Amino acid sequence: MEYTNPELPEGINTSDTHPLKEFFLLTIGVLAFIFIAVTLLIIIVDNFADKIPFEMEKNLPVESFITGKSAETLPPYLDKVSQKVIKSFELPENMHITVHYLNEDMVNAFATLGGHIALYRGLLDKLKYEDELAMVIAHEVAHIKYRHPILSTSHGIVVGLALSIFSSASGNAVINQLMGTTGMASLMRFSRDFEYQADKDAVKSLIKLYGHAEGGIGLFNVFKSEFGKESRFEFLATHPLTENRISQTTKIINANSLSSGNVMTELPGEFKLWLKKQKDKTEN
Amino acid sequence: MTDLIIFIVLLSLGYGFGRYAEKNHYKSIIQREKELNSIPAIASRIPPVGRPDLTNQLVAGNVVISVDYFKQFIAGLKNLLGGRVTSYESLLDRARREAILRMKEEAKNLNAEFVFNVKLETSSIHKGRGNGIGSVEVLAYGTAFYPV
What we know:
The complex is a heterodimer of chains A (284) and B (148). Chain A is mainly alpha-helical.
């Protein structure tokens, strides 16, 4: 008996499709699905989250997290400006806002659940004018006004849960990371929208209090010099690019036909001195 | 952002080197298959009868091929959607053919006329990150018949 092996044609066990074509179709398809799914999920969540009564937020033990060892009593000047800004918002009666001061170097401020706002010494140190201080406070008050903390928390929980379900289905670390990043990118878009909304109301509050919005531009310029050159990629950032925030503020100023070059109110020397003492306190 | 850049670099490296290696490997496989076609690999278990002039010996060929980052990524996405995992198909095709070739080369050293009862075994020998397949092993073995 004669034994032979025929010469088999190529391509029986392989595909002719170019791997890059498959790569782009698959990647774009999966990422678009995640993006749309997360966006839809957030829209659904938003319909429920803002129905959570503000009183429920207040009952959460948030304050103990903020008032760590660096928390100090608000000096009278800071309290005065805060109250002035809060008043300008004409918030609903049950929406009580508590302003905290934290003696830390961090250049930041935040608003969180239960109507709490925290201002870091690091940021206050960088400010020269009361208008800028008012802009910081007004921005955070606006976050509370629109219930951004509860909305962001709900977004984070729901999107995190959904992504972990997807991740456990894929079981591949690289794919999980990519899905996580896409989920985050879709989430961040909402976060940046919150910032724009807060900026908008903060600028309106400034106009109401000072008759102009120089403080807005002033604060963003402080950010610019403090954080230097930012990445040009906004899509993974929680906050919009400073340039974009400046241009939104400028638009509001123009829409209200306000003149530019207005004089801002300088921060009182007493307050500056107090901040310096606070800084010395941390260094000792 | 850094993660994304690392990911793109790894993906490009995987694609570039993976494609280059695969192209060269196929070229070598096709050429060697032609050369070794004179030693047929037969799946039948029943050895040829009426050939007292031949004796036999076990021959085996073993190969381990690693999956590149690009192939693994495509396979991971396919895992979600289903369908032919074409990126692994060519990988296993290469591994199987290479294992048979190595087995045949061993048979050629014995001056064998043919290899009988050829069998293949496949396993993934290294689990990558997140339990993804890292490399694949294929073992081909059979009974070579060669003149006494």
